[in-house]
Amino acid sequence: MHFNVRLEEDRLCCLVIVGVRTDGTKELVALADGYRESTDSWADLLRDLKRRGMRAPVLAVGDGALGFWGALREVFPETRGQRCWVHKVANVLSALPKSAQPTARKMLAEIRDAEDRDHATRAADAFAREFGAKWPKAVAKIVDDLEPLLAFYDFPAEHWIHLKTTNPIESTFATVRLRTRVTKGPGSRAAGLAMAFKLLEAAQDRWRAVNGPHLVALVRAGARFEKGVIVEREQKDQEAAA
């Protein structure tokens, strides 16, 4: 998240990580001053979390910032990635003329909100056929990132709504942005970080747990889900019966 600093030329770049604990509650994990979302800045932050005992997340949800994903591969290579659909849709629409955007928005929603991965893949193919000839760059933004866009399908269906976007951070930072507009930005980078931390800390008390909180521990334990439903237990039951 970026916002202005009154007494400095460069904008403050806040690197923010919100996590979900095994009991399903959300928690502010880290807040740091980064440099233009660079790989080094993100890697320093992730390495600090690792030193303090944080295990590799099962899934990381983020926008298209290359610095974050590069750092994640370096520090927590076992963590899977999920791209934020809100950011992705905005990027795709920006590559299309306004006349094509209503149809594209509807077709993108059909991919994002499909009942399972198979239906989502078919919806993505339909999007490519519809726009590929005239606007290949817009289609490439979906086709090239389809796997990380659909990673959420490998998790409990109850969690899908939480995993598709970075809204928990975006919505919380609306308060931070409002405060910086009122004050015309903090006087220094340190003051900006302190303000953001206090506002996020206060907001944290109002964050609700994810849907199906009892399933988070199963995800952490490595349970496998297919079409949003756990399958490990079914297989063990079949093996026991045999």
Summarize the structure in words:
With 242 residues, the chain is of the alpha+beta class. It has a domain at 1-84 and 165-211: Nucleotidyltransferase, domain 5 (2-Layer Sandwich), CATH 3.30.420. Helices cover 51% and strands 13% of the residues. It has 12 helices and 7 strands. It has a 3-stranded antiparallel beta sheet with strand order 1-2-3, sandwiched between helices. It has a two-stranded parallel sheet with strand order 4-5. α9 packs across α10 (189-204). The chain is globular and about 50 Å long.
Features of this protein?
three-stranded antiparallel sheet; Nucleotidyltransferase, domain 5; single chain; alpha+beta; 7 strands; 12 helices; 242 residues; two-stranded parallel sheet
Structural class designation: alpha+beta
Q: What is the CATH-assigned architecture of the domain at 1-84 and 165-211?
A: 2-Layer Sandwich
Separation of termini?
Answer: 55 Å
Form type:
globular
Rg over CA atoms: 20 Å
Helix content: 40-55%
Order of helices and strands: EEEHEHEHHHHHHHHHEEH
Care to give the gist of this entry?
Helices cover 51% and strands 13% of the residues.
